[in-house]
Amino acid sequence: MIGRILQGIGSFYTVESEGVSYVCKARGRFRKERITPLIGDMVEFTPADKDDNEGSIDVILPRKNELLRPPLANIDLLFVACASASPEPDLLLIDRLLVRARKAGIEAAVVINKTDLDPETAESIAQQYRLSGYAVYLVCASSGQGIEQLEAAAKGKIIAFAGQSAVGKSSMMNALCPGLNLETGDLSRIERGRHTTRKASLIRREDGYLADTPGFSLLELDTFDPETLKDCYPEFLPYEDGCRFLGCQHLGEPICGVKEAAKEGKISPERLERYGILHEELKEKWGKRYD
Ligand SMILES: Nc1nc2c(ncn2[C@@H]2O[C@H](COP(=O)(O)OP(=O)(O)OP(=O)(O)O)[C@@H](O)[C@H]2O)c(=O)[nH]1
Ligand SMILES: [Mg+2]
Ligand SMILES: [Zn+2]
What is the pTM of this model? Predict the structure, then answer.
């Protein structure tokens, strides 16, 4: 049979096929081959039989894409989420997630939740990412404001939320899916630094799937050639014609179309500055890759 992995606990997975859920164990050979089934994977499986033989996942079908943090496969749209306040927005983390999505070939959009708390900050973050060419959604999960637009973007797709703990990922999913009732964090728990959602899971809804994932606050980029980082910034491309040097990194080079565009406010100077931080970080890791 063919189905989709919705959840995993240890080496047991919930596989859904035509609306029915089956519990299956990943075959031992996956471990040997260092393949980890991911939430969202399409698989060939054998359901448990009457003689109590447990169900098994036999083959993982080719993935359209995969993310390892959060661990998900075959995502159509990743909502990179932050809050206008509480927790304080970490835009470097947003940029890292956007870079990762780009490297993984996953379409991403930026979602700013808790617009009730600090509407001005929400708008200024939105402006940065609009200038970067991303779709941006301003949401207040508690009042339901902006949920309709999210809903429209999610229609018919497998979507996932990623972002810091307590930005309201589960709350937004609950708003998107009335009756879902995912656990959301209470403030005292969040203040103690606890995550509310502990495991990623995929939830079927009438039109597509939603993935809830645990939040995180630290995320390193995988090691890759820093010279390719610029290609993960869609807003740079139109201005690269104005760079004097072929392969300009838009850092310290003289005559740089991208830096000029930032000066003129055509792209976000803040994001260009953070690009420099990520570039530096990658350069260090890349230099040590053979150590
Ligand atoms: N003021 C305000 N609070 C909100 C909003 N959305 C969610 N919250 C609150 O923020 C807290 C965290 O929400 P969650 O949905 O649990 O956050 P999460 O991103 O799923 O957190 P993790 O599962 O730990 O990653 C809860 O107390 C929510 O009630 C909002 O739009 N405005
Ligand atoms: Mg959650
Ligand atoms: Zn340049």
Answer: 0.93
